[in-house]
Amino acid sequence: FEFTYHEKDGAIYYQSVDVHLQLKPEYESLQAVVEEGNAMIEIAKAICDQIINEHESNQMRLLAAHDYLILNTAYLVGENEYDNTATSCLLRGVSRCHGYALSFQFLSMLMQMESHVVIGLGTNETGTQPHAWNYVVLEDQGYFVDVTFDDPMTLEASLSDFIPMRSYFLR
Predict the structure, then answer these.
(1) Whole-prediction pTM
(2) In what order do the strands lie in the sheet with 11-15?
(3) Cα(83)–Cα(15) distance, rounded to whole angstroms?
(4) Coil, strand, or helix at residue 75?
(5) Rounded to 5 degrees, what are φ and ψ at 95?
(6) Using one digit for the tens of pLDDT, what is the confidence trace for 122-141?
(7) What is the pLDDT of residue 29?
(8) Which of these, 60, 90, 150, 165, is most buried using a 10 Å CB contact count?
(9) CA distances (Å), 167 to each of 145, 148, 150, 164, in order?
């Protein structure tokens, strides 16, 4: 894995055939950004190692990644772009839809499964708004996974209110 720094926009990018990550953290040094990116990779590898060891089928591995993100991330209401990344989701446990989707894509890629981030409009009880989710290929069949819509947890909610959902898994 390799990150590149683009001085023009102050962002760090990771790019491979299937994964494109952008980090735009508010740090004082490039070294701090690189360290956070590397920490995110190590956490993602550890998550995937555990999932692969515990589950034999790719479907169960995807479900375990889905559930891991739901159980370890709270949906953050707000407009801070730094809270909508794989880093915010995997390292800080808070994110919005794009961060959930990037994290799910990254975990899927590390487990050698095809996943793409889809950006469009999502509709829920609050209306229609920009949204991101995933498209995965499992046994030559395409499915949608929306970890965000399956996560009922926000920072304002309590654990007693938490009910895990799988309504948007492999649809």
Answers:
(1) 0.78
(2) 3-6, 11-15, 20-23
(3) 20
(4) strand
(5) -170, 180
(6) 887 778 888 899 999 999 99
(7) 67
(8) 90
(9) 9, 11, 6, 10
Token pair belonging to 49: 């190692």
Cβ neighbors of 95 (< 8 A, separation 6 or more) are 73, 75, 76, 83, 84, 85, 88, 89, 103
* pLDDT tens figures, 65-120: 999 998 888 887 766 656 788 888 999 888 888 999 999 999 999 999 999 999 98
Half-sphere exposure of 50 (CA within 13 A, CB side): 8
List of residues 6+ apart from 163 with CB closer than 8 A: 152
The token pair at 61 is: 């591995």
Residue 143 token pair: 């499915």
